[in-house]
Amino acid sequence: MAKHYSATESLAALGDPTRRAIFERVAARPSAVGDLARGLPVSRPAVSQHLKVLKEAGLVTETPEGTRRIYRLDPRGIAAMRDWLDAHWSGALQSFASFADEQFETKEEKPK
């Protein structure tokens, strides 16, 4: 069965600051758990748990390399978030344009 990529699950997974930091490290360079844990204020097992959540949310994949697993970004999960944001972007731009027009009209109506 094919994996379903949900933008809301992905965004929720990134709501945790430590998980977001791990995601950013993976985005910078595919890495093993030990490399990702280095410099973080959490243990390697905690990093593994965060990676599990990121994987379940469709944001990272793992590939075995010898005795290690290398984590990489999953472009399909990122595409789902991008699609979700793009779907809301035109509405946000229209709302901004309406607000700007109202501000301009209000300024024009004031007597000088």
Please, could you describe this protein's structure?
Strand 1 (60-65) and strand 2 (68-73) form a beta hairpin. 64% of the residues lie in helices and 11% in strands. It is elongated and about 75 Å long. Helix 1 packs across helix 5 (75-109) and helix 2 crosses helix 4 (44-56). The chain has five helices and two strands. The chain has a two-stranded antiparallel sheet with strand order 1-2. The relative contact order is 0.15. The protein has a single domain (7-109), classed as Arc Repressor Mutant, subunit A (Orthogonal Bundle). It is mainly α.
Task: Provide a short characterization of the protein structure.
With about 110 residues, the chain is mainly alpha-helical. Helix content is about 65%, strand content about 10%.
What are the SSEs and their pairings?
Elements: H1 7-13, H2 17-28, H3 33-37, H4 44-56, E1 60-65, E2 68-73, H5 75-109
Antiparallel strand pairs: 1-2
